[in-house]
UniProtKB/TrEMBL annotation:
PANTHER family reported in the protein's UniProt record: ALPHA-CATULIN
Gene3D superfamilies the UniProt entry points to: Alpha-catenin/vinculin-like
Domain of life, source organism: Eukaryota
Protein name: Alpha-catulin
Length: 625
């Protein structure tokens, strides 16, 4: 956190001073990224040294020399910094005026600090008449404020360049995405998809760096969710488009492809909304209030009565309680909540009502008696109310987590997906329709369970992860059905089969993410750790994700090229395809996904698959080759 130094001096000088921890200086600029904040910390430290030195009666030569060195170091650093800012202004005309003014102010402040710290070797005296840091501390504070304000402005303006790069990259991706959507020949698709892959990798690098740099954990989680969609949709887009090109008259293939393109555009738009802090078409999507937040606010309001009986109106606490109980209807009205669970929740809600009413009664009595502090009656009522509201949180947590655990056990067997794949491969449309209804029912259960987990997740980043999981199940379920319908109409189509596999893998991957989310929610509830966002990668995870996208695009390029070869037994092509597939499977293994489940599977993949040539002769790379 950054603190503007010299708060006392600022006050005595009649200047408003921001509170410690607030990174908004005179310019009103908000620091939103860690990189800008980290850049300012050394400067703040040096200026604090200058301002907060002890005002001793006698000042040694050593003290004077140290102050002089620090002041000059600040000025030199500012000079270098300003030179970079001016270079940025020269290359970006839209920032020229603002950046030029900020650089001018920074240089002026740096010069002022250098002059004020130029105390020289002789000890200054009141008769010297020279203005130094010792005789004009208010001047030093003003110079420091101006310097921090102007340097912050330069950094924030420079940050706009990063935002511009991301927006430009997104625009390039959108243009290519439009071209991809309209292609009519396979050859044209291969050419444009290769360009699209390169642009997506660039976008992944830029947005990954930005995600790691964001200070706001909520924005970080939203960015992670959008990037996760883009990463998974890239492969879906490839196979869905190829399927559409192979079967241009198939309605289900078109529906499948259109859904992927739509989801990618939405994810791209979400990234830009986060980066630029804007809303498309004037929309202002606000997250629904969670029960966890309601409980936290209610308890806070009740407990503050200990300090001040007159802090809140009686109607405020009662209103909060009723709104909280109303939100539990997401649990009690759910068709998947058992009768016993419903009765338990309703029972605790009634207890909360009773305890709140008793608190209100004790509260009114205390106020009527003009009590200056909480009476014993009020204290007991506060404890009982907080205890019952905590019991409500425990009951809701038990229901949500219990249902999620049960669903994950059932879905771990993947019976509906297996049945759908088999029915599609056999061309059995009747069986496909039957198992599609089963999958739709399971999708609805998962969507509703994610909604309940949202209420008990315990942090904003995890709330966003729950919403991401809910949206993913809601979208991928119908996409699996359209993909299997296409396969059932064309059971001999390899690309239709591959397309179905991609969507089924995305479903399974989301189930794995849900299991991790469940573990995080439990950990927070039990106080074992702070909130982490499951779909949000930290720096190492983000690097792995970028690598995975690059590997998958490489693999996809190879697969696409193979489609152009009429002779499928061509050794070099088949071997290249095998190597690309192996690389991506190994990447998935590092993330706990894909077909490789154990270390033994990984070793087997490394030893066997890439080293045996397609016709079963000697291993490639043998000493005699």
């Amino acid at each position: 956190r950054l603190c503007v130094p010299g708060q006392a001096e600022l006050s005595s000088a009649g200047m408003a001073s921001p509170p410690c921890g607030n990174s908004n200086f005179d310019s009103g600029l908000e620091i939103k990224t860690r990189s800008v904040e980290q850049t300012l910390i050394p400067l703040v430290t040096q200026i604090t040294t200058l301002i907060n030195h002890k005002d001793k009666p006698k000042k040694s030569e050593r003290t004077l020399a140290a102050i002089h060195r620090v002041g000059q170091a600040v000025n030199v650093a500012v000079g270098r910094f300003v030179a970079v800012g001016e270079a940025i202004a020269a290359e970006n005309q839209e920032l020229k005026d603002e950046m030029g003014q900020a650089c001018f102010e920074a240089r002026r402040a740096g010069d002022a600090i250098a002059q004020l710290t130029d105390v020289g070797a002789p000890l200054p005296s009141q008769q010297d008449g020279g203005v130094t840091v010792f005789s004009d501390r208010t001047g030093m504070v003003k110079a420091a404020r101006l310097l921090l304000s102007s340097v912050t402005k330069v950094l924030v303006l420079a940050d706009r360049i990063v935002i511009k790069q991301i927006v430009t990259s997104r625009n390039k991706v959108l243009v290519t995405l439009d071209h991809l959507e309209r292609v009519s020949t396979f050859q044209e698709f291969v050419q444009i998809f290769s360009q699209f892959g390169n642009e997506m990798v660039e976008f992944a690098h830029l947005t990954g760096d930005r995600q790691n740099d964001l200070k706001d954990e909520k924005k970080k989680a939203r960015m992670a969710a959008a990037r996760a969609v883009l990463e998974k949709c890239t492969m879906m887009l490839l196979t869905a488009s190829k399927t559409c090109l192979r079967h241009p008259d198939c309605e289900s293939a078109r529906i499948n492809k259109d859904a992927v393109f739509h989801r990618m555009r939405c994810a791209l738009e979400q990234v830009i909304e986060i980066v630029t802090e804007s809303r498309s078409c004037g929309e202002n999507k606000i997250l629904p209030a969670s029960i966890y937040d309601g409980i936290k606010d209610f308890k806070s309001g009740v407990e503050c009565l200990r300090e001040n009986l007159y802090a809140l109106p009686l109607q405020s606490v009662s209103g909060q309680m009723e709104a909280l109980v109303e939100r539990t209807e997401d649990f009690t009205d759910s068709p998947y909540t058992s009768h016993e669970q419903r009765q338990a929740i309703l029972g605790v809600c009634q207890l909360v009502r009773q305890d709140t009413e008793q608190l209100a009664h004790a509260w009114v009595e205390a106020q009527s008696a003009h009590a200056k502090e909480a009476t014993e009656q009020v204290e007991v009522a506060i404890l009982k109310t907080c205890q019952s509201i905590s019991e409500l949180r425990r009951e809701l947590h038990k229901v949500a987590v219990g249902r999620a655990s049960d669903l994950l056990k059932v879905h771990g067997e993947q019976l509906p997906l297996r049945a759908l794949k088999a029915a599609g491969a056999e061309g059995n449309l009747e069986a496909v329709a039957e198992f599609s209804r089963t999958l739709t029912e399971q999708k609805e259960q998962l969507v509703e369970t994610c909604r309940l987990l949202y209420h008990v997740s315990g942090s904003e980043p995890l709330e966003i992860t729950c919403i991401h999981a809910e949206e993913t199940f809601h979208v991928i379920g119908p996409q699996i059905i359209s993909a299997v319908q296409t396969l059932a109409l064309h059971p001999s189509s390899k690309i239709a089969k591959e397309n179905l596999e991609v969507f089924c893998e995305a479903w399974e991957s989301q189930l794995c993410d849900m299991a991790l989310l469940l573990r995080e929610i439990n950990d927070i509830f039990e106080g074992r750790r702070g909130a982490l966002t499951i779909c949000g990668c930290e720096q190492e995870q983000t690097s792995i994700a970028k690598l995975g996208l690059e590997l998958r695009l490489l693999s996809s390029d190879v697969d696409t090229e193979v489609e152009k070869w009429e002779e499928q037994e061509h050794d070099v092509v088949r071997q290249s395809q095998s190597l690309a597939s192996m690389a991506y499977n190994m990447h998935l293994f590092t993330r706990g996904e894909g077909l490789l489940k154990t270390t033994l599977d990984l070793f087997h993949q490394a030893e066997v698959r890439p080293l045996i040539n397609p016709k079963g002769s000697r291993p490639l790379g043998h000493s005699s080759d």
